Amino acid sequence: MAAPTRAPAAAPSQATPATSGLVSRTAPATRTSVRDQARRSHRRTEVRKVWKSILKQASVRDVRVHDARHTAATLLIEQGVNIRVGQRVLGHTRVATTERYTHVSTPLMRDAGQRLAPALWGHPQ
């Protein structure tokens, strides 16, 4: 039986005056991704400026937006909000992400201990 033949490899695209320079015709995404990165960076800078202004007006200590998201997630859980609702509020695709954002606080730990004691010992502590 004869060995299967392979089609010849495609020749690399030739640069034309319109595509010569930093970006080749084979990688148009590079130009877009660099532009998108610049836009995202500018947007992040603007968000930071607005955030800092809000904190100053509210006389609240300086924290990152990211830290505030963790705090919001924890407060939602402490208030008894279902984790799936917190997921939607925070805009997370996966509930596992929301779980990573939440932190177990001392009051929640105390409450868990108070609920567990009667189950373990048969009487309230």
From TrEMBL:
Biased composition (Low complexity): 1-19
Pfam families (UniProt xref): Phage_integrase
Keywords: DNA recombination, DNA-binding
Domain Tyr recombinase intervals: 1-114
Residue segments, region Disordered: 1-46
Record-level GO BP terms: DNA integration; DNA recombination
GO molecular function, one term: DNA binding
UniProt feature, compositional bias: Polar residues: 21-32
Family according to the record: Belongs to the 'phage' integrase family.
The name this protein goes by in its record: Tyr recombinase domain-containing protein
Species for this entry: Nonomuraea terrae
